[in-house]
Please model this.
Amino acid sequence: MHGPRWRNNFEERGYRITASRSAILDVLSKKRCHLTAEDVFFEVRKIQKGIGIATVYRTLDLLVQMGLVCKFDFGDGRARYELASGEKGHHHHLICRNCGRIINYDDFLTEETGLVKKIEKELSQKHSFEIDAHQLDFYGLCKDCQKEVK
Amino acid sequence: MHGPRWRNNFEERGYRITASRSAILDVLSKKRCHLTAEDVFFEVRKIQKGIGIATVYRTLDLLVQMGLVCKFDFGDGRARYELASGEKGHHHHLICRNCGRIINYDDFLTEETGLVKKIEKELSQKHSFEIDAHQLDFYGLCKDCQKEVK
DNA sequence: AATAATAATGAGAACCATTATCAAAAGGAG
DNA sequence: CTCCTTTTGATAATGGTTCTCATTATTATT
Ligand SMILES: [Mn+2]
Ligand SMILES: [Mn+2]
Ligand SMILES: [Zn+2]
Ligand SMILES: [Zn+2]
Model:
């Protein structure tokens, strides 16, 4: 996820590479986790003093549309954004119901990736659906919250 | 998902079985799909004329907490509720990015269920996480929207 | 049955993440 | 520089959800 690639991507579509936009991409590149729009906003303001929250939302939308960023909704009322590092970089989630902690994992079981592909193929045919992505999340209690709740 | 079970469940916890509450459960039982709170509200009003939207939200929360109802968030800004029919009744989703259509499927591949269990076990150990549920969604374009977009 | 205690409810206000609006600023083409 | 398009920030508006609070319904106690 370094410069040239997304720069080309921008230019091809006639989008301008502005300071705000590249600052937002910088933040997403460095903090590789599930940032809310607000998180991004505060982080980017350290670089781009005057940036407005609207620009953050607009840019995030843009990046999602371009496929450079993934948008998640874990059910706590705010969207989360994360750099889409393509095939490699794809991961699934463990989400704590108590504290909201989110754990990424990409050390899939050997069967895991293969089966998901197989399911996708099967479902595509059966439902005439053109699948381009999937999301697998596990919900429960994290280590710390297990004690706490008991 | 018929009477006695959830009635007991309610009484055990000291919750009252009111007309509104059982009307809401009725609606969820009959319309077996992903209803928004508003959907439920309008549907229930046919039975319980004076019911307020706040009661719908409160009751849905209650039912989710009790494990009788599942709450989903497919990223369109509104939560969806659906009767949790336990082990049987569990299903995964196909979601159209264009029109928002949601397709349930529970005709899992034979390997599908087994593998998910295996992953859960593995993840539980590795991350000391107590997993109690999972959600698997596939995103893409439904049959109708494939033509439209092209 | 009457009374007291508690739980549930409806109306509407409040909340809060996200979107829309719009005038100003910045960037690019010539 | 000039014209035209895109981007931006401030702020208002939106819309789903939650909160507040006075009223009502249900249950427990006498
Ligand atoms: Mn993630
Ligand atoms: Mn479903
Ligand atoms: Zn936790
Ligand atoms: Zn569709």
Q: What stands out?
A: Chain A has two domains: 1-84, 86-150. The helical segments of chain A are 3-12, 19-30, 37-45, 53-66, 110-127, 143-149. Chain A has a mean pLDDT of 91.
